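Record Glycosyl transferase group 1, 369 aa.
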Amino acid sequence: MAERGKIKILQLITRSDWTGAQKVLYSIVYGLKKYYPDQFEVEVACGPENGQLVEELKKINVKVHVIPDLVREISPVKDLRAYFQIKRLIKDGKYDVVHCHSSKAGFLGRIAAKRAGVKNVIYTVHGWWGIEQYRGLKRKLLILAERFAAKFCDKIVLLCHRELLKAKEWNIGKDSQYVIIPNALIPQPPASRGKLRKELGIPENTKIVGNVARLDPQKNPLRFLEVAELVLKERDDVVFVWIGGSIVDDSYGKLVQKWLDEHPDVAKKVYFLPFRKDAVELMADFDVFLLTSDSEGMPLVVLEALNQGVPVVSTDVGCVGEMIDSVYSKKEDLALNLLKILNENDYVSHRYKEIYDRFIENHISIYRK
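=>
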């Protein structure tokens, strides 16, 4: 145990970019540093990309270790090296708790931690997309890998009851390992409105429907466009904004561009913006947040939207049905509910201080095992 009786924790994740799992990790570290500095000492380890997560952690004086061979892609040679690099770090660091995030770090990190003698090893499942995106033999192999790795951890953190049921269905882990801890955001005051409207020249009397996501099949931007087409048939004072992917730079963007070329009337009402660090500020101008994904865990972007007082319309994916009142399977139902909210102009604000406090307390309870 660290000096003065502190519990020493290593948070381990594969990539250091600034998406869902990384934001969750940061939220945990931030809460421990801010509210329990005398009880916990926390460090972070990640792969070699020097992403925004590393920048944000340095701002709050968190020690970051780089694992040179920890990469997202499967590479037997690099993966074996990464395993030994992680194991050496854990042995040298004398950690009481190792908390793993993401598939690759979760697999290598759990095994390395237990082999290094760590008494409390935790793994957070940030959604099952890593398995669900595949079919056939590859899916079976990935399930087997998760079953094997589950033998090397004490707790498996799942984001909602639906995710727990999937773990049971695939026989990953045991009942005694399962803990449900919904994601939470560090409470922030709502951003000022107007930045996105000014940037794109959108007048105040025009409604904005938006999403913030990567431009890839999982997020299904084509469904986003199909819903836009249905909505625009009913009212023309609406524009649709997708933040997080450029149809020029992203390979999947070719399919999106083809759809837009075939639907020029809709294309005039749609904007695609690249990844933006100020996405939450831009989101403040959304009148409705439209999530069209095929698979999610507990998307933080939904919490970010609700925290801005922006109503959410979503497909029935992951934990979203446990976050908002209604979710939908068909694009026609998404469009109808979206129109209902636009017509009623019904905004609901949310406060997250209590939710965030409970999020931190739930993690503390498993760290103190």
